[in-house]
Design a protein that fits this description.
Blueprint lengths: L1 E6 L5 H11 L5 E8 L5 H8 L4 E3 L8 E2 L1 H13 L4 E4 L5 E2 L1 H6 L4 E5 L11 H8 L3 E8 L9 E8 L6 H24 L3 E4 L2 E4 L1
Helix pairs in contact: 1-6
The structure holds glycinamide ribonucleotide (GAR).
């Protein structure tokens, strides 16, 4: 059984989908803590309503990365709560080498585009602006780069002519809520092997 430590900065719909997959018996895991760099984030409220430890960590003095004392704090919290797998679910800071070394090949992220296309912020807006006809979401292992790690699962979403950033992101999120539990279930069942940059399903 996986022991998930979830990191998020937003409303927490992906965290909810994982909790629901666990409850439904589709994912052999438990969520040991939810950590956010945003004090009022919905993901912390969600955790509290599910009786999961919900912890705010001040990320300053940095704005876009998790480093220094804040990173040390997060590593300590994850260890104290017994996490063996770190799940980035809308966590809007870059992960640095300290956390990567503390949980080698055990940090996953979900990204709202078909990587390697459209890494970075507001990927759904990037896809719209580029005139893409198909987008989607990607679950991948995290490495030192921005949204560059080995890809585990992708799900596609058509981009419609009348899509707005909001409507496209909403449809991508529906697929995210299927992709993340699916990827973690593969990990929980020991069915993932990494060969170079490639993830092989066994
Ligand atoms: C999700 O769409 C996720 O893919 C995105 O933030 C949203 C969080 O939603 N993450 C990124 O853009 C990371 N670069 P949630 O708080 O409802 O799970």
């Amino acid at each position: 059984m996986l022991a998930l430590g979830i990191l998020g900065s937003g409303k927490g719909s992906n965290a909810r989908s994982l909790l629901e997959a666990i409850r439904a018996g589709r994912l052999d895991a438990r969520v040991v803590c939810v950590i956010s760099d945003v004090a009022g984030a919905g993901i912390l409220d969600l955790a509290r309503t599910r009786n999961v430890p919900a912890i705010h960590v001040d990320g300053s003095p940095f704005r876009t990365k998790l480093d220094g004392a804040a990173q040390d704090h997060v590593i300590r919290l994850l260890r104290e709560h017994g996490a063996d797998t770190v799940v980035l679910a809308g966590f809007m800071r870059m992960i640095k080498s300290g956390l990567l070394r503390a949980f080698p090949r055990r940090i996953l992220n979900i990204h709202p585009a078909l990587l390697p296309a459209f890494p970075g912020l507001e990927a759904w807006t990037q896809a719209l602006r580029a005139g893409a006809k198909v987008s989607g979401c990607t679950v991948h292992f995290v490495d030192e780069g921005m949204d560059t790690g080995p890809i585990i699962v992708q799900r596609t979403v058509p981009v419609l002519d009348d899509d707005t950033p909001e409507s496209l992101h909403a449809r991508i999120q529906e697929q995210e809520h299927l992709a993340y539990p699916e990827a973690l279930a593969l990990l929980a069942d020991g069915r993932l092997r990494i060969e170079g940059r490639k993830v092989i399903r066994t």
